[in-house]
Amino acid sequence: MHLIWENNIDNLLSHWTGSFKGLDDGMESYQFPKTVWDAIGAATATAGATIPSAYGARVPNIATHRSTYSAEMKSIWTMYIGPVLLQHHFTHAKYFNHFVSFVRIINRCIQFEMTYEDIEDVRGELIQWVQKYEEIYYQQDLQRLPTCPITVHALLHLASSIKFAGPVWCYWAYPMERYCGQLQPTIKSRRFPYASIDRYVTEDAQLSQIKITHNLFAELSLKAPRIGIRGSCQVPEYPSCILLPPKSHERPTEHLQSITAAIATRFKVTISIARKAIAASSIEEWGKVRRVDSSEGDTFRAAGLGIIRDDSRDASFVRYEVLIDKNAHRRRQQSQFEVQTFYGQLQHIYLVRIPDDCRRSLKIKSDTDTTLILAGIRSCKLDNAPSPALASLDVHFYTSLGTYDVIDITTVQSLVGRFKAVPTARQWALVDRSGSLARAVYDGDDDEDED
Q1: 328 vs 338: CA distance, rounded Å
Q2: What is the pTM of this model?
């Protein structure tokens, strides 16, 4: 946290804006004109409205409010916003590529797990990055020696630290900073602050041990119990999802053909049979759905229902994964499915209850298949990345929305953000924070194994 966000990233920003210890760019030309940096700052502030709050604090204008940036804000800007907004603004591509290579290294260092081969790769990449840094900013000029603080040299030891202690998320400073924030309100005496802190730390440790020993987590919790949200709905068939208001009081009339096609595909019946089942089924439309498979589950909002405040942050774009038949256009060949990733806007959430008299026609064998939560998603037509450097960061772009698909809600993997790649253009950049843990793995058809 301090090595990367509070030091090296902050130093790079100072270099680019001409505010690094009174030094200019020497024989290079990496500094931005004020008008360019102001435009980047304005685009940064605008991006906050379309990046969900689940990603962290809203990032303000980096040109005018940089002094208010926390480490979290700098991390969001560096990993998601900065690489897109900085493209084409440097006078030479080598400056942009140098920054993007640093972002790529950061992404590797904070991934959930790393092999020894990954660590050695990071070691080599950091050595190359530091050498390039000295070439661009130090320029082998003793008068520019202040451009090489100890924090740049510390990067060369980062791989050894990971090899010794594990990935950086295991010991970065965010939990400690939050813990310090808990300690500050416990100080009741200005004259003897440490006595108050010692008492709180001791009592908190004692309380934690009592909770663990006697399994009294709920009874001794210092936080207010989480109660159900008024008007919410949770169905047993989907234990990882909670439907949240608003809820439409009318049966939806749009996209019934898409819902019918989803039912026909799911139960492998004809469209006519699925249409009769939909006509007899109860269909409700909801405005939000929350994933509750973890304490920090994302809340997805359907764009087609409810009123969205002007100051709200868009939480309707998602990443979802579905099985696609590679031989769909070859009727005589056996189906061969593979998982493909898509991005799109969640526009509708449907709760479909199929009556018992339709079970036979749909060949439903399990009671859990009679209640479905379906997501109506308008897919994004992905464009090619504007540069190979951005493609290496797995950043995706789109200009327009495509087909409307109705899929099961459990195929929606994560919430994503978006912002204008160029403020005056129509192209959007997608912000996807999910890593390998959030990616679904398809192991083949279970029915084939049973046969």
Answers
A1: 12
A2: 0.84
